Amino acid sequence: MGKVNVEDNARKFIKQDDIHEAQHDKNLYNTIIKRSKVSSEIPEWEELRNLASQIKEHALTHLDHYIEQFATKAEENGITVHFAKDADEHNAIVFDILNSHGAKRIIKSKSMLQEECGMTPFLEERGIDVLETDLGERIQQLSDERPSHIVMPAIQKTTEDIAKLFADKIGTDPNDDDPHSLAEAMRNNARPKFLVADAGMTGANFAVAETGTFVVCTNEGNADLTASIPPLHIASIGIEKILPKVEDLGVFIRLLSRSALGTPATQYTSHFSGPREGSEMHIVLTDNGRSKRLSMDKFWHSLKCIRCGACMNTCPVYRRSGGLSYGATYSGPIGIILDPTFDEDTYSELPFHSSLCGSCTEICPVHINISDQIIEWRKVMMHKNKTPFGRRLAFAAADRMLGSATAFKMMEKTTYNMLNILPKSLLENSTLDPWVEDRELPDVKKETFRDWYKKTEKTMTKEELLSSVRTNLANREKVDYPAIPDYKKPGTDLKAVFEINAKIAAVDFYDVASVEEAQEIMRKKLPDAKVTCSATPEWRGNKDIHVQKPADLNDVGLGIFRAEFGVAEMGMVWVTEKSLVTNSLGYLSQHLAVLLDPEDLTENMHTAYKRVDFPHSHYGCFVMGPSATADISAVLVHGAQGARTLTLFFLKKTVL
After folding, report:
1. Pairing outcome for strands 105-108 and 129-132
2. Is the whole-model pTM more than 0.85?
3. All structural domains of the chain
4. Which of 397, 410, 402 is nearest to 448 (CA)?
5. Beta-sheet strand order (sheet of 232-238)
6. Cys-Cys link to 159, which of 33, 66, 140, 177 (CB 3.0-4.6 A)?
7. CB of 627 within 8 A of CB of 641?
8. What is the rounded CA–CA span in Å between residue 45 and residue 348?
């Protein structure tokens, strides 16, 4: 692979028309607005960011211990753990597992590590059919393109682009560009393939050393279908994803989706601690340059990244140039500091694809100093002569000029006079300077900043600064390495809070006095749901839950189960394999009805993780609502892959 020409790639995206750049920028800006709103609703938001940063730094500086603990616990839970040094080993291990099982058709949910390793083309070259089940990833797969965003892989495409693509690839109407229709078309195209897959592959957002559990966060339910239907589940996990304890998840789950999409959580936050009965589970713990990065003094903090994409959403360069311009697995600011660790030659231009505004650093939920690292990567590229000669010459001249106050003042005066004297046609000649191709030079002010500053100069003295700091710190308690609080709010009406958040997540909820009352409501809502399947003895379905294989639940119109407890802050419920009996009940069913005792409510994710029972529950999921996606032009659509609707009934256990 040659050096990425990020400038040409960006130009292609910007110049293609008047629509793509503007829509891309608008969609990502709206995500930032939503992120600002939901983060402001949590008083302890900044404290959570500090906690997350400290937990990650602690985990990374003790990574050898936590890798060993995680692998041991996972193996005790019945998971086979493999270790991969690099991408080649990762792909070889995956192929060997699949080949040994005779697996020819696999379904996979979004995994940046698998993308990083080039796994899909590797497997396809060896006769294995790979289906991306995430809608955005599937769009990019059909386009033969990389994901352009960590969380929203196809965000650079318009609805018209996707309508044409689907018409060409899966035979839909090219004139129907409604996001709901397009999502439904892909649901109908993909779901039959779930049922016949030989193996399922996922990544992981987090892995917990304490219990050998890994967590996958999705909105579509595709990861759970991928993991719960085929007899073989393979998870690719980067070693930096490991956290010390289960209680750490409360911090990161509260931060992740709020930072990524401006939502309280993903619709499904799924936890895997072992294989379901009659199946196999494998984990491929992968290094691929991560341990080397640990030794890089300037860049090891990039390993704290939780892949939320917030830095991409806020970056003015990424928002206007598109993710594909970076020519790499990781784009945007985080890509700039990650990609050169894989290949300095190929990605030598990326560190210069930044305005250095610092917005990425300000927004990062785990306090990665992204903009500082971009500057450091620029130094590396200059020092190793990996940048064009002209740029190195210009930077050398700038170094001498900026290093001398006299030289700087002379250059300032000279430039000021040139801008006033030289004809505008010469100054805006794009042949001489491509920068002005799409820009106009501003009018030159009669007074320079230096002249203005001399008239108004007043600087804060050291004593004034220290006095201000001491005043503002007078009542501030000094903080040691913190324990994670519960963040309980005294007197909170948990049911009222739950209902507010459940409504946001598109959950219908009812207070009922009996199962019969709930049944009558569902009969009116879903008169065509002929097949029902229930994991609750008090509300029987007409299809036996104890089926021979998960795919037998494909015709279920209404799935019914009782949640073990609910989380008020998120409007979500916790279910395990015990709640569902068959894990796929919650995802293959077209619609869901959930029973929840209002006494079984907990306040937030911190208190929730004190109630989960790992590793005795091999599977557990926080369900926040029906399946959803916003992968088509950021338009929210329900029923992407999993359940189309979720109806919750508050029903006390004592009335059963």
Report:
1. parallel
2. yes
3. 494-650 (3.40.50.10420)
4. 410
5. 80-84, 280-286, 232-238, 199-202, 105-108, 129-132
6. 177
7. yes
8. 36
